[in-house]
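Handover notes (outgoing to incoming on-call)

Open items:
1. DUF917 domain-containing protein: sequence verified, structure written out, both below. Nothing else pending on this one.
2. Nothing else urgent.
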Amino acid sequence: MMTPVMNVDKPALRRIARGGAVLGSGGGGDPYIGRLMAEQELGDDKTVPVVSLDDLPDDALILPIAMMGAPHVMLERFPSGREIPALVATMEKLMGRKVSAILCIEAGGLNSVIPFIAAAQMGLPIVDGDAMGRAFPELQMVTFTLAGIRATPMAMYDDKGNGATFDTVSNQWTERLARALTIEMGGAAMVGLYSVTAGEIRDSLIKGSLTLAHRIGELIETYGSQAPETLALSLGGAMLFHGRVRDVERRLEGAFAKGSVKIEGQGDFRGRSLTLGFQNEFLSAEEDGRMLATTPDLITLIDANTGAPVPTDTVKYGLSVKVLGLPCDPIWRSEEALALVGPRYFGIDADYKPLDVA
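DUF917 domain-containing protein structure tokens:
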């Protein structure tokens, strides 16, 4: 049992950012810039309180805040700092009530730390949980969709101050329309959506995400290059591969970063090769025609020399890496969930099989 994180200061934020990069499965945006912005908000002595969903009354309004766009664009067009107050004010106007707490919509990458900026700026607590348990590339890919919760009303702002609101007929339409506007906004925007009460999400929130990210960050700090093996053991995962990156193919399609990474085996994996496919996040790991892992299980690339997670937008030729597979939250293994986030949704010609950790 992990001790829950209660207050997040700068050291805790660094651990959460690093753990979030692992849970991001290569995507969600590199948390480095977001962490620096959050640290600036925290200053030397400020902390963000972390609350359990169970500690909030049923009518408490919770607002997820996130960055939307392709990961490498989000690194180049990071927030101005004015978007969050505008988002919160707009959402409070739309909902007709005050926000009680901030939530991470996903546990991974940049969006594991962006909500801390919001919490620090607005003087609000952040909930220890999220709606993915990892990172996924599209807005409708959340546990809230499975629970029938609407993404809208939704607001979004860019770094120039342009804002928009949405009221859509489905969460899939929210994704389509918001993605199109994100492209017009330069490929990245700050969004507030899935505003919910605590009572509405008691059965659909993936609880303890921030505590888990913090624990992963602690293990990386402690074990360095041996962190992948330690994480696999601690989190019920598996070491899928060890090798050197031999080719990276990356392209931008509709505000998504898509492509593949080819890895040549080293050590015990010498003479073998692995191909990772990604759409913002790593979605498949295939060795010589055999699928080792697919979404919704997590596939994370780790620097073999440092133990640091490697995002899809920064992986490069020649890097020595280890490939870590981690099991997804059980909520993603139903037929309804797999239709939303499973391999065939992304055009991968394979049925989902739970990660083999034997």
